[in-house]
User: Fold this.
Amino acid sequence: MADFLAEGFVVQDDCGFTFLPGVVVLEGSIICLDGVTPDVRKEIEILGGSGMNAWVQTRSFRYHAWVRGSHNILRYESAHERHRERAHKHVYDTFGYGGETDVIELSTEDEIPTLGDVLSELRGWHLMNARRLRDLP
Assistant:
């Protein structure tokens, strides 16, 4: 996160950690240039150990990026009941009607992004769309 803040793509990080028995929850919003805003919720299970030596594993995640005051950009989600059996990515028509255009299944663990991966993807998306973003109402 420090690198994204230092380079100026991330303007404000409002995410925080909540420590529960056996689980750590990362939740909040990250404000980026031109109103690009990923909302984050990630549940991390503590498998063993403690402190900086704890063994952890992501139990569930959701990275939902949108343009403030406008449309969605993308949403990554872990598998969840009654919807999808695998982790997946929703893609949206940000500059058109705003609706979902695609759902991409993430078949392997390697395809599941970290928060840093999502911020890198959004930084690239922003570079390609900065002018169009400034024209949104």
